[in-house]
Amino acid sequence: MPAEYDRILDVVAENPGATLEEITDLAHDCGITDTGIPDLLSKAESNDDLLEFDGRYWVMQTGKYRFHRYDHPET
Question: DSSP string spanning 8-32?
Answer without folding.
Answer: HHHHHHHSTTEEHHHHHHHHHHTT-
